[in-house]
Structures are given as structure tokens and as C-alpha cells.
Design a protein that fits this description.
globular, 8-stranded mixed beta sheet, tRNA-splicing ligase RtcB, alpha+beta, single chain, 19 strands, 24% strand, 34% helix, 7-stranded mixed beta sheet
Length: 480
């Protein structure tokens, strides 16, 4: 239905006009090359258009080139609502609240890491627990939860699991204000109690990568990057804690819509006015889950840093966080709306913040360069580092893509891969050491299950949402 409504607005930009169907209040904007359009499923186009019907939605909804259908808002979707007249929709952040990515710099080079990649894989499998429901070594007490809600990643740093400057290199300094533990609930705390410092399952990973291409030397120098350097990329979120928060509040929102007389074209977009009791309590619980996720990635990074220091006989202080970004989150941000700077509620679902140089929310070094945008690919090809650019503030609420985006469902990937062992052996022959909690995961996450991430970042760069800085390739991959 919506595919026939697409209107070209630029080299890699398209629009579904607001008058395309009854109820749309703003247009839906899609970033994709002409070659990509056939691979975007119709349901994702429907979802990004449905989001344009929500009360208080502003300017446009936005789909990134890695878009694919999700729960409510498509993965790769961005929307914003007016905090006074608009709603908040848990489905537009998803179940894995503050799923995100961080990258740590190291002084290790590619030759050193490649020579011991088997050892690295085994040590990291031990240091970073993964798999469905897998617990870690940090059993959280109520005081821990209270501090995590208040301090986010700072909870881990205060326990000696990191350095103070780690926090400055996190989006929002690794914590959101306005998080009250009571709104997350006991069931969420029970589920997350033994999961701090764990990857989880599916597409979550810890990856040892080497920088194999630099596109912007000036920015790379300021970020401390060089060709052949080893980086560590970590991708995970708020585990069972965040999932429980999302589950409970999606049900709450369905009841709230009846209370406030709100109707939506898809129940997965269940919502409530931001200023309502339900809206405020969800945002508080969501922020608590987001802070749990930042703490989780901080703990994992510390475990990896400790393991690498032991293997390569280097100081932990020589390995520093470059950046940490969320890609499933809802935040109040300041943007230009109808010619006026105003606060809006930005929902990102599988989309990464991409703030440009000069933005007051960034640490000093990134005020010069723009915020690092971390874009993982698949475990067999490449990932990218980009820098946020000013045009993203006009085009996409300061947002960019978050990864390659799935091309095949997990079932399709399993059918095509044959076996996880076959995938593992094929990657090993190419110099990539892979480990997973279960071999089925390797089949589900095979490289061909994903779009070519280089095509995705090309669209983002062409659209001016971010500029390319560096490309990395995998050496060791640990999957949940």
C-alpha cells in the first residue's frame, strides 16, 4: 500500500506524504538508495507510516536505511512527539531498552591479536557470559539497584569497574536523570538480579576488531585511532530487567488509551500522554532500565579490559572507552521545530544519536569533531565509525543508522546456513575466530542474514546524517 505512495525527495531520501492515508499527521521520511528499496519490507513502511498518526507527533517520522519491521515502530525508526500535547509509546523504544554499542581503544595491534586469537576467544567466553537467561558474577542487592537507577554506568565506576573518564565518553554520561526504581517494579529487579555484566543472546556480541581503513585522518587522530589498531566493540542492553519493564508498561498503555480516548492503527503502538501518570511512570522505569544497560556495558568492558591486560601484559589504563551510544531509547532533547528551538520527546528504535560538532551535550573532544556514531555490521564483514553531522539535526532529529539490518529472519537463516559449525569453520578459514553459547546462534547470525553494512553507511553519508571516519574488521567474535 505505502510503497506506491513513495515520493523521491533527494538522492537517497524518499517520503510518504501525510495525505497518503487517513490519520497521518506528518509525512514519513525514508533514507535508502534506489537499489535498497525493494529489500525494505512492506510491513516496515506501514509501521513508519502508522507512527505518523500518533497524537502530538512532530515534523515527520524517519526510517533509516537499515529499517526492518519490529514491534510497533520499525527497527531503524525515529519519531518525536510534543511533550505537552504528545504521547510516549513504549513500542517505539522496544523490549531491549537501551540496547546499545560501545567501543574501547587499545594499544594492541592487529598482528599481536591475530597471533593469539584462539586464546582471546576462550578468555573472552569466560570473561563475558552470554546466552539466553545466562547469569553473571554480580548478584545485585537492593542498594545496588538504587545506585544503578541514580548513577547508571557511574555505579560500576564507583565500584572500581572502570575510570571516571569512561563516563564522559558515554551518551548522556551513562545515565538518565528522572529514574525512580519503584516504577521499574520487583519483577524486573528479580529478572535482572544476576544478569549484570552479561551479553544475553541473539545479535548481542563482544568483538575484537582491527582498524583497516581510515577515511578522515584529522578526526581519527583526535579520537586516538590508527590503522591496524585493535578496538573492542560491545553490543548489548538491559537484559531481562528492561524486557520486563517494556512488557508491563505495554499492557499499562493499552488500558491507558481507553482512559484517555486514544486510538492507534496498531495496538503495538499503545501509548499515553507524556504528562499523564502512566506516561511519567513509564519514562521513569525506562530511564532506570537505560541506566541498567549503561552499567551492564561498563561492567562487560571492565571484564574485557582486565582479560586483555593479562594476556598482553599491558596496563588497564592504556585501554580507554572511545564512546558508548544507545539505539533503543526515548529522551527529551532540544531540536528546531517550525523555526523555534524546543524540547521534544525523541523515540529511537534501532537508530543511533548523531549529534554534530558544537552540540552542548557532547564532551569537549567531540564538540570539535561531532559525536562518534558506532555502526556494527555482521560477524564476517565489517563495522564502521562515523561522526555526527549538522544536517542530521534538520533531517532526522539528530539520528543515524544503528547497524546493517537483518535481511533474513532467524528461521530463514537457520534453513540457509545448514549448521553453526559450518559457519564457524568458514569464518575461521578467513582468520576470524568465533565463539557462541550455542551453535544455533551462529547459524541465525550468519553474515548473509544481514544487509551489507557498507551500503547502509554509504546512504547515511550521502544523506549527510553522519560522515565516515574509520572501518573495522573482526578478529574475534563472541556471540550470546
Amino acid at each position: 500500500m505505502y510503497r506506491n505512495k513513495l515520493r523521491r525527495t533527494g538522492e537517497v531520501s524518499w517520503e510518504i506524504p501525510a495525505d497518503s492515508t487517513r490519520g497521518m499527521l506528518v509525512p514519513a521520511k525514508i533514507f535508502a538508495s534506489e537499489e535498497m528499496l525493494p529489500s525494505i519490507d512492506d510491513s516496515a513502511l506501514t509501521q513508519i507510516s502508522n507512527a505518523a498518526t500518533l497524537p502530538g507527533v512532530v515534523l515527520h517520522t524517519v526510517a533509516m536505511p537499515d529499517i526492518h519491521s519490529g514491534y510497533g515502530l520499525p527497527i531503524g525508526g525515529v519519531m518525536a512527539t510534543d511533550p505537552v500535547t504528545g504521547v510516549v509509546s513504549p513500542g517505539a523504544a522496544g523490549y531491549d531498552i537501551n540496547c546499545g554499542v560501545r567501543i574501547m581503544r587499545t594499544p594492541i595491534n592487529f598482528a599481536q591479536a591475530s597471533a593469539v586469537r584462539g586464546t582471546l576467544a576462550e578468555r573472552l567466553m569466560t570473561a563475558v557470559p552470554g546466552g539466553v537467561g545466562r547469569g553473571g558474577v554480580h548478584e545485585l542487592e537492593h542498594d545496588d539497584y538504587r545506585n544503578i537507577a541514580e548513577h547508571g554506568a557511574g555505579w560500576a565506576v564507583n565500584k572500581g569497574l572502570g575510570f571516571k573518564d569512561d563516563l564522559a565518553n558515554c551518551e548522556s554520561n551513562g545515565r538518565l536523570e528522572g529514574a525512580e526504581l519503584k516504577h521499574a517494579g520487583n519483577h524486573a529487579m528479580k529478572r535482572g538480579r544476576d544478569q549484570m555484566g552479561t551479553l544475553g543472546s541473539g545479535n548481542h556480541f563482544c568483538e575484537i576488531q582491527h582498524v583497516d581503513e581510515i577515511y578522515d585522518q584529522e578526526v581519527a587522530d583526535k579520537w586516538g585511532l590508527s590503522k591496524g589498531q585493535i578496538l573492542v566493540m560491545i553490543h548489548t542492553g538491559s537484559r531481562g530487567f528492561g524486557h520486563q519493564v517494556a512488557t508491563e508498561y505495554l499492557e499499562t498503555m493499552e488500558h491507558a488509551m481507553k482512559k484517555y480516548g486514544i486510538t492507534v492503527p496498531d495496538r503495538e503502538l499503545a501509548c499515553a500522554p507524556m504528562e499523564s501518570e502512566e506516561g511519567r511512570e513509564y519514562l521513569s522505569a525506562m530511564r532506570t532500565a537505560a541506566n541498567y544497560a549503561w552499567a551492564n556495558r561498563q561492567v562487560i568492558m571492565h571484564s574485557v579490559r582486565t582479560a586483555l591486560a593479562d594476556i598482553f601484559h599491558i596496563e588497564p589504563e592504556s585501554m580507554r572507552l572511545l564512546y558508548d551510544v544507545a539505539h533503543n531509547i526515548i529522551k527529551i532533547e532540544r531540536h528546531l521545530v517550525n523555526g523555534k528551538q524546543t524540547n521534544i520527546l525523541v523515540h529511537r528504535k534501532g537508530a543511533t544519536r548523531s549529534f554534530p560538532a558544537g552540540n552542548p551535550e557532547l564532551a569537549d573532544v567531540f564538540k570539535e569533531t561531532g559525536q562518534p556514531v558506532l555502526v556494527p555490521g555482521d560477524m564476517g564483514r565489517m563495522s564502521f565509525l562515523l561522526a555526527g553531522s549538522a544536517k542530521s539535526m534538520d533531517e532526522s532529529f539528530g539520528s543515524s543508522c544503528h547497524g546493517a539490518g537483518r535481511r533474513l529472519s532467524r528461521h530463514q537463516a537457520l534453513k540457509q546456513a545448514g549448521s553453526g559449525k559450518k559457519i564457524q569453520e568458514g569464518l575461521s578459514a578467513r582468520g576470524i575466530e568465533v565463539r557462541a553459547a550455542g551453535r544455533q546462534t551462529l547459524a541465525e547470525e550468519m553474515p548473509d542474514a544481514y544487509k551489507d553494512v557498507s551500503q547502509v553507511v554509504d546512504v547515511v553519508a550521502t544523506a549527510g546524517l553522519a560522515k565516515m571516519v574509520a572501518r573495522m574488521r573482526p578478529v574475534v567474535v563472541i556471540k550470546g
